[in-house]
Amino acid sequence: MAETFDVPAGSITDDAVADDIDGWDSLSHTVLMIRLQNAFGIRIPETVAAEAATVGELTAAVAAIAAAGARA
Fold it and tell me: Which residue from 10, 11, 15, 55 has the least number of CB within 10 angstroms?
Protein backbone atom coordinates (compact mmCIF):
# COMPACT_ATOMS: atom_id res chain seq x y z
CA MET A 1 0.00 0.00 0.00
CA ALA A 2 2.73 2.43 0.92
CA GLU A 3 4.39 1.92 -2.44
CA THR A 4 1.14 2.28 -4.36
CA PHE A 5 0.19 5.50 -2.61
CA ASP A 6 3.77 6.75 -2.24
CA VAL A 7 3.45 7.33 1.50
CA PRO A 8 5.50 6.09 4.47
CA ALA A 9 4.42 2.59 5.54
CA GLY A 10 4.03 3.76 9.12
CA SER A 11 1.38 6.24 8.07
CA ILE A 12 -1.03 3.46 7.08
CA THR A 13 -3.00 2.02 9.98
CA ASP A 14 -5.67 -0.67 10.06
CA ASP A 15 -8.38 1.88 10.80
CA ALA A 16 -7.35 4.20 7.94
CA VAL A 17 -9.86 4.91 5.20
CA ALA A 18 -9.13 6.12 1.68
CA ASP A 19 -9.65 9.75 2.66
CA ASP A 20 -6.92 9.39 5.30
CA ILE A 21 -4.23 8.47 2.77
CA ASP A 22 -2.89 11.03 0.32
CA GLY A 23 -3.04 9.72 -3.21
CA TRP A 24 -5.75 7.09 -2.61
CA ASP A 25 -8.16 7.78 -5.42
CA SER A 26 -10.09 5.51 -7.79
CA LEU A 27 -7.13 4.95 -10.11
CA SER A 28 -4.66 4.15 -7.33
CA HIS A 29 -7.29 1.88 -5.74
CA THR A 30 -7.45 -0.10 -8.99
CA VAL A 31 -3.66 -0.29 -9.11
CA LEU A 32 -3.63 -1.50 -5.49
CA MET A 33 -6.15 -4.26 -6.25
CA ILE A 34 -4.10 -5.43 -9.24
CA ARG A 35 -0.89 -5.42 -7.19
CA LEU A 36 -2.53 -7.38 -4.36
CA GLN A 37 -3.93 -9.92 -6.80
CA ASN A 38 -0.55 -10.37 -8.46
CA ALA A 39 1.37 -10.52 -5.19
CA PHE A 40 -0.89 -13.17 -3.65
CA GLY A 41 -1.98 -14.99 -6.80
CA ILE A 42 -5.64 -14.40 -6.02
CA ARG A 43 -8.71 -12.83 -7.56
CA ILE A 44 -10.34 -10.11 -5.45
CA PRO A 45 -14.03 -9.76 -6.30
CA GLU A 46 -15.09 -6.19 -7.07
CA THR A 47 -17.61 -6.34 -4.23
CA VAL A 48 -14.84 -7.05 -1.73
CA ALA A 49 -12.71 -4.23 -3.10
CA ALA A 50 -15.64 -1.81 -2.92
CA GLU A 51 -17.07 -2.88 0.45
CA ALA A 52 -13.88 -2.87 2.54
CA ALA A 53 -14.22 0.40 4.43
CA THR A 54 -10.83 0.38 6.16
CA VAL A 55 -7.33 -0.85 5.49
CA GLY A 56 -7.87 -3.48 8.18
CA GLU A 57 -11.03 -4.76 6.50
CA LEU A 58 -9.26 -4.95 3.15
CA THR A 59 -6.29 -6.75 4.73
CA ALA A 60 -8.61 -9.27 6.39
CA ALA A 61 -10.52 -9.85 3.15
CA VAL A 62 -7.32 -10.43 1.17
CA ALA A 63 -6.04 -12.81 3.85
CA ALA A 64 -9.31 -14.76 3.82
CA ILE A 65 -9.32 -15.02 0.02
CA ALA A 66 -5.70 -16.16 0.01
CA ALA A 67 -6.37 -18.71 2.76
CA ALA A 68 -9.35 -20.07 0.84
CA GLY A 69 -7.12 -20.55 -2.19
CA ALA A 70 -9.08 -18.31 -4.54
CA ARG A 71 -6.53 -18.28 -7.34
CA ALA A 72 -6.50 -15.77 -10.15
Answer: 10
HSE-CB for 33 with a 13 A CA cutoff? 17
Confidence label for 69 from pLDDT (cuts 50, 70 and 90): confident
Domain with 9 in it: what CATH number? 1.10.1200.10
Please, are residues 16 and 54 in contact by the beta-carbon 8 Å criterion? Answer: yes
The three state secondary structure string of 24-70 is CCHHHHHHHHHHHHHHHCECCCHHHHHHCCCHHHHHHHHHHHHHHCC
Structural domain for 60, as ranges: 2-68
What is the value of pTM for the model shown?
0.86
